[in-house]
Design a protein that fits this description.
Radius of gyration: 22 Å
CATH architecture of the largest domain: 3-Layer(aba) Sandwich
Distance between the termini: 67 Å
Low-confidence stretches: none
Mean pLDDT: 94
CATH superfamily of the largest domain: Periplasmic binding protein-like II
Structural class: alpha/beta
Largest sheet: 7 strands, mixed
Bound molecules: spermidine
Shape: globular
Helix content: 40-55%
CATH topology of the largest domain: D-Maltodextrin-Binding Protein, domain 2
Oligomer: single chain
CATH class of the largest domain: Alpha Beta
Number of domains: 2
Amino acid sequence: MKYRISLAVATLIAANAAYAQDNVLHVYNWSDYIAEDTLEKFTDATGIEVTYDVYDSNEVLEAKMLAGHSGYDVVVPTSDFMQRQIAAGVYMPLDKSKLPNLANMDPALMANAARYDPDNEHAVIYMWGTTGIGYNVGAVAERLGEDYEVDSWSLVFDPEVVSKLADCGVSMLDAPSEMIPAAMNYLGLDPVSTDPDDLKAGAELLESVRPYIRYFHSSQYISDLANGDTCVAVGWSGDVFQAQARADEAENGVEIAYIIPKEGALQWFDMMAIPADAPNPDAAHAFINFVMDAQITADITNYVWYANGNAASMPLVDEEITSDPGIFPSEEAKANLWAAKVNDARTDRLITRLWTAVKTGQ
Ligand code: SPD
């Protein structure tokens, strides 16, 4: 039997399909990086449903963005990676008329982010943080002594020290553009140097401690630290604080601390941006504007323990967070933070090669 549909019905079906498309937003964000109720609140406020996927590596996001047709409407690259993605035409300029909550953002932090994206044309700050060291206070004291002061990258980069911690589990981020510069900085080299000899020296240091590293991974360390399955992790500030929050919740007696090592650390900004081929740019703008609401951003910071770039949210952020120097570093610690620079393709290839050798030990 053949069915014929009238023009009116076909138009209705097409309109429904367009409505369904208009009413779905596809977000791709870092794992463990949003409050439990943010998406639900967005849907309640706008009627737009959200599909939400996560990653834990800038390289993974970049591969998807450069390939195109990702199907995502909002993504959250870190500013240095974002800079070269903008140059590759990956993101659309924001329509600031649709972002009235931009007025909530901290002008000094936005100016900082504008070093990677002049006039903040393509992106706004989601959260920012540092790359330092999380550790299990009891397990480390047991192995290095109660009086050992944990304040240096030597915890993971000095073979004498890290070898004593290997049995309780040491992890590093699977993030070559962060681990090699951190090692270079420890050696007294410029962490943003692209001199191949400096990069090789950083990789050699990492190779020398490789036997004491249990794994390289960029999200597993949260639960492992929280459960006491590992005792030291090079990690991102808020993630380490989340590990402590999970241990508190489990009441398992694990105490986790986070340090920005005295030699300095990377400060980074994660940015909300809209892919140039986003299926639903209107919903993307609505989402970015929604997140920039002072209360919504404060809720996220209060849940994920990351600093944000939203000045209006600060009075709504828990004091436990605003007063913690691991999340909001002191002026003294800030002077020691460095900002990543975007690498050229040749430097990137070298870093990738060196990293493979570090991880495989070959
Ligand atoms: N769990 C959220 C982690 C966010 C980390 N952002 C990446 C920073 C890269 N320098």
